[in-house]
Amino acid sequence: MPQSHFLAFQLSPEEIDEFREAFMMFDKDGNGTISTKELGIAMRSLGQNPTEQEILEMITQVDIDGNGQIEFPEFCVMMKRMMKETDSEMIREAFRVFDKDGIIPSNLS
């Protein structure tokens, strides 16, 4: 797939390579798609325990062509979303750790 297809996702070449490597690990049968079964196996191997419904919802959110499976471009969308959610969670956690009294420095003046 041409690199230009990934411009919409704002992915760096390094991210594309990392996502492709992960995609190939998740695509156990090597058919170029990740099924609900393969996604469930992959999620459990990462320490997650999603329900069948959660797996279906994950696929539905990114299944652009509606075939019930995830192709590589769709996988990239899913991974980018997960990265953004993780970044937001990390920022919130940092605030919880460092902001013990609920006061930010600008409130002190």
Automatic annotation (TrEMBL):
CDD domains documented for this protein: EFh
Q: Does the keyword Repeat apply?
A: yes
Name the residues that span the membrane. none
Q: Tell me the Gene3D superfamilies matching this sequence.
A: EF-hand
InterPro entries of this UniProt entry? Answer: CALM/Myosin/TropC-like (IPR050230), EF-hand-dom_pair (IPR011992), EF_Hand_1_Ca_BS (IPR018247), EF_hand_dom (IPR002048)
Q: Which PROSITE patterns does the entry link to?
A: EF_HAND_1, EF_HAND_2
Q: Which Pfam families match?
A: EF-hand_7
Record keyword Zinc present: no
Query: What GO cellular component is one of the record's annotations?
Result: myosin II complex
| Record-level Gene Ontology MF annotations | calcium ion binding
- What SUPFAM superfamilies does the annotation carry? EF-hand
Q: Which UniProt keywords apply?
A: Calcium, Repeat
Q: Where is the EF-hand domain?
A: 14-49, 50-85
Q: Can you say what this protein is called?
A: EF-hand domain-containing protein
Give the species this sequence originates from. Answer: Diploscapter pachys
